[in-house]
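Appendix B, example 12.
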Amino acid sequence: MKPSDIGQSYSTTGKLLHWGFIGVFAYGIFKQVDDLSQLDDPAFLRFEFIFACAYLLILALRFWVMRGQASALPLGTPTWQRVAAKLVHYGMYMALMAIAVTGLAIGVVFTLGMRNGALMELCIAAHEASIAASYGLITLHVAAAVYHRVLGDGVWSAMVPILKERPKRRG
């Protein structure tokens, strides 16, 4: 593999936002609301709103920084893989954004006193669907990263700070 066949590495800011957001996402999953009655506590509800807004802000910043970066995929990557990578990445952004937006919607509907009924059920279903979608897309993303690590084509090393790959040489 020629050096020109390897895609570019991501910026330090891009890497920090990528790995930092993983921490924020993991925290959000870890501290999730177990029961709607928890939202009766005004301090808890306020924290949930602030966390969701901060989460969206960090996600938007991450998207803004990464949008200007060229792909780490090698020049010879098949078109279908490039399209799949874009679909997974944009899908992850949409699903991750939807988690916070639907969480905020749950909080608003709860605050307005509509704690039961079709609207709350719709908000909860959308929230759960966005979480499930994000898990599926993250799994695809990680699987693709591992695939590229095995290929040794530079994609893994463009974002992952450990276990750097050595480009495979063609005979």
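Residues 95 and 130 are 5 Å apart (CA to CA). The chain has one domain: 8-68+77-159.
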